[in-house]
Amino acid sequence: MTLAIIEDKRVPLAMKEIACFxxxxxxxHATRMTAILEALQSxxxxxxxxxxxxxxxxxxxxxLKDFSYHPLQCDIGxxxxxxxxxxxxxxxxxxxxxxxxxxxxxRELVGKIGGCRLVLCDIAGLxxxxxxxAGIVSVLIENFTWDWIYQAYLPQHPGLLAAIDYLKSQYQxxxxxxxxxxxxxxxxxxxxxxxxxxxxxxxxxDVRNDLGCQNRRVIxxxxxxxxxxxxxxxxxxxxxDTFFILASQQQSTTLGAxxxxxxxxxxxxxxxxxxxxxxxxxxxxxxxVAECYQAGVPLITxxxxxxxxxxxxxxxxxxxxxxxxxxxxxxxxxxxxxVLDQLCSGQRLSPASINGADTVASYLFPILSAxxxxxxxxxxx
Length: 381
What we know:
Radius of gyration: 21 Å
Structural class: alpha/beta
Number of strands: 16
Strand order of the largest sheet: 5-4-3-6-7-8-9
Order of helices and strands: EEEHEHEHHEHEHHEEHEEEEHEHEHEHHH
Oligomer: single chain
Number of helices: 14
CATH architecture of the largest domain: 3-Layer(aba) Sandwich
CATH class of the largest domain: Alpha Beta
Low-confidence stretches: 1-14, 373-381
Mean pLDDT: 90
Shape: globular
Number of domains: 2
């Protein structure tokens, strides 16, 4: 078979190639894209995605068997002080350096995606600009866009106005617009789908056996990919009838008989950990909420009061998932430990019957299975 060399990786020319531009803000956008690609590859086994992002390659390798990784700062998003707090002044400074997109960068990226049939963008507007220049159909996938997020901060940070106007124009240029629930700002999108999540792989009982939690109650604390100091860790040993798992730590270790810290590189798959838990405590972020929705596991969210998406996710979890919320201060002070029995009283719900990733894959399948590369004019919608 004839091969093409793409950044030192050999890719069969017969494969159907697509490009994916993924914002590096947190891991939720990357896991959402991963779930969509997994669903697409189940329909099109020879689909080969090219991933443009700075999200660690290892996160995609947990799920996808075949892809090429191109390290690229393709978006700014929000600069974070930690996983719960954003730095708006630094964000504005970075945006002013990054926008508008440099013509030389766009042309360089056009050269890298020339064989691709589609460009998928989970809210990195750069991908839409590159697709337009290359004459390839672009697909915007979102439950929020950065112009919507920045708008909420505008009264206190007027320096965001230029970025809002510029990114809004980029998003409006997408050929296909897909929104996934819970949506922050509904629009006349081409497709609205249910939450998108990576699939559970292993039986709940098997994971619990591996964890060694015996018959104890299992609580998973998952605060996403950002570094957050959890000052209450040493107090968890005072609740010996509960087995605590803390995900995305610097390293894996055990503390006493009932606390397990798992590093970001742990072999445990996050959707499987969620399914194994009796309760999940997490920041109000898309991927963990969606994976809890999949499993039907009781959920407690830690709100990010200054982040606009947080309120939307919390409304969804309260109405659709029967969850509760904690303030950041209450969570970090471990004020919830004495009332743990009450917090664990929620009932496990039925697992989600529909994965939005399958809906998206079915929608895009006719475009990707066509014999000819689609043009930048977009498909008939």
